[in-house]
Amino acid sequence: MLSEILTIGFLTAFLSAAVRLAVPLIYGGLGETIAEKTGILNIGMEGVMLSGAFFSFAGAWFSSNLFVGLLCGMLGGLAVSLLHGFLSIFLAKDQSVSGLALNMFMLGVTSFLYKLMSTGQDYQQIDTFQTMAIPVLSKIPLIGEAFFNRDILTYMLYVLLILTWLFYKKTNYGLSFAAIGEHPRAAASAGIPVHKYQWISMIFNGILGGIGGAYLVLVQLGVFTENMISGRGYIALATVILGRYTPFGMFGAAILFGAANALQIRLQTIGIAISPFLLAILPYAITLIAMIGSIGKNTKPEALSEPYIKGAR
After folding, report:
1. pTM tops 0.90, yes or no
2. Summary mean pLDDT of the chain
């Protein structure tokens, strides 16, 4: 059995599946990183991604155009994040309660709308984005297939990760956004428009989370099912913590979870003599172990999840 696992063919397929499974988490994690940098905790990322998944499917189904579906998914995710922003920024409500409420709300809304949409129709499926191999790079052994023979949304993600890293590391605006999450009152006294920047962060949070949900529909499956996010929004939150609130750290944490998920699938495929139920919990067990290993190394923004009320002391 070990000889099957250590072959180039197995490792190539395993790494490729790991990247494919990690992409929705990276989109959600990147959106959450941007929000948390300004002190907004969006536990409702599950609802954001679910909204993105449903509306991308509905948009693609009715228009027969994947890019229209992608736009609808982005707008669906954006709507949920803006609702969270209204509750947590404008009304200064508890951010954890707001996020959990939105998760339950969107589960009901998307299930209801999908039932309306599918009434009297047969099984609904749409086409998906095809892979586009990058010449030369896609031929690199092991990593070429995994990273450079992918779809347009994955390539777009690489660019977004680099731009986000540059934004926070190399620009004054990035430092201003990060300052809000650390000490919003000091940032406000320095002339930084705290609420304005928090609203901007929620816009990116919703758009990126919506793309994360849309990826499941427009790239992986081509269908929508009720509650299809299945905890990925919560895992995206975990990747931000494991990645120490940095874009590339979050990327590594998402790849770790994707690898754990891919491993349990591949091990079941080759018929390894372990209970499938034990293999199914492997991704979550590895994530939990990684979380425990990060105890004492937390670098979260100091003002995370604390509402900023202008003029209050």
Report:
1. yes
2. 89
